[in-house]
């Protein structure tokens, strides 16, 4: 009996670890490229080169660059929802500034998700925001249904962020925060 053969369960774990490492490398590669160029200009070849993997290896993990972006989107959406949920605590201006800085620091991936990926990602953010805030008790009754207020607030915020990502010279992060606060967050919390 050859005792040098790897144990089947161990081989499976090693493969899983390699899969996890390769996917993490692909995520980082796409994020790096998204900082340098629009999502539409990024190719699978460029992602594979940036990741230091073979072109065919990319397709063992993702069917296309949109599938890779969707995989990255899950974690990012969770982070974005946490940032967008801050106005519930009360200080809408501070929440708007925190959100503006969050997006500014992640401009490339935000642009890819909110502009490049378009409506599907926006709908996912709205749906997840509604689900995540349903467990938070209301501090006071609102004039409108809570789900409608959350949907409006998130959708309007994403629309403003997408516009800003397309027109980055139009406003700095302070002015973006003012726009978010005055046009969306403050009126939504007053409703």
Can you characterise this structure?
With 191 residues, the protein is mainly α. It has two domains: 1-62, Orthogonal Bundle (Arc Repressor Mutant, subunit A); 65-191, Tetracycline Repressor, domain 2 (Orthogonal Bundle), CATH 1.10.357. Helices cover 74% and strands 0% of the residues. The chain contains nine helices and no strands. It has helices at 8-36, 44-51, 55-61, 65-84, 92-105, 107-116, 119-133, 146-166, 173-190. It starts with 7 loop residues before the first helix and ends with a helix. The model is unreliable at 1-14 (pLDDT under 50).
Please describe the structure with a list of short key phrases separated by commas or semicolons.
mainly alpha, Tetracycline Repressor, domain 2, 191 residues, 9 helices, 0% strand, Arc Repressor Mutant, subunit A, 2 domains
DSSP summary: helix tally = 9
Average per-residue pLDDT, rounded, comes to 81
Q: What is the general shape?
A: elongated
Radius of gyration: 20 Å
Helical residue percent band: over 70%
Q: How many angstroms separate the termini? A: 75 Å
Low-confidence stretches: 1-14
> The biggest beta sheet, please?
none
Topology as H/E string?
HHHHHHHHH
**Beta fraction:** under 5%
The beta-strand count equals 0
So what's the CATH class of the largest domain?
Mainly Alpha
Which architecture of the largest domain would the CATH scheme give at its second level? Orthogonal Bundle
Q: How many structural domains?
A: 2
């Amino acid at each position: 009996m050859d005792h040098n053969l790897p144990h089947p369960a161990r081989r499976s774990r090693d493969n899983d670890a390699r899969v996890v490492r390769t996917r993490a490398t692909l995520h980082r590669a796409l994020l790096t490229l998204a900082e340098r160029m629009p999502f539409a200009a990024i190719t699978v070849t460029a992602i594979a080169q940036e990741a230091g993997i073979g072109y065919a290896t990319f397709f063992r993990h993702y069917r296309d660059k949109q599938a890779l972006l969707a995989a990255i989107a899950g974690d990012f959406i969770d982070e974005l929802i946490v940032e967008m949920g801050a106005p519930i605590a009360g200080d809408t201006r501070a929440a708007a500034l925190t959100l503006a800085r969050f997006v500014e620091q992640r401009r490339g991936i935000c642009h890819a998700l909110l502009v490049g990926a378009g409506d599907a990602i926006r709908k996912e953010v709205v749906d997840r925001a509604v689900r995540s805030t349903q467990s938070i008790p209301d501090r006071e009754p609102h004039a409108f249904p809570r789900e409608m207020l959350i949907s409006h607030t998130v959708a309007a915020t994403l629309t403003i962020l997408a516009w800003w990502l397309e027109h980055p010279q139009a406003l700095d992060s302070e002015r973006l925060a003012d726009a978010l606060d005055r046009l969306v967050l403050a009126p939504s919390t007053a409703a």
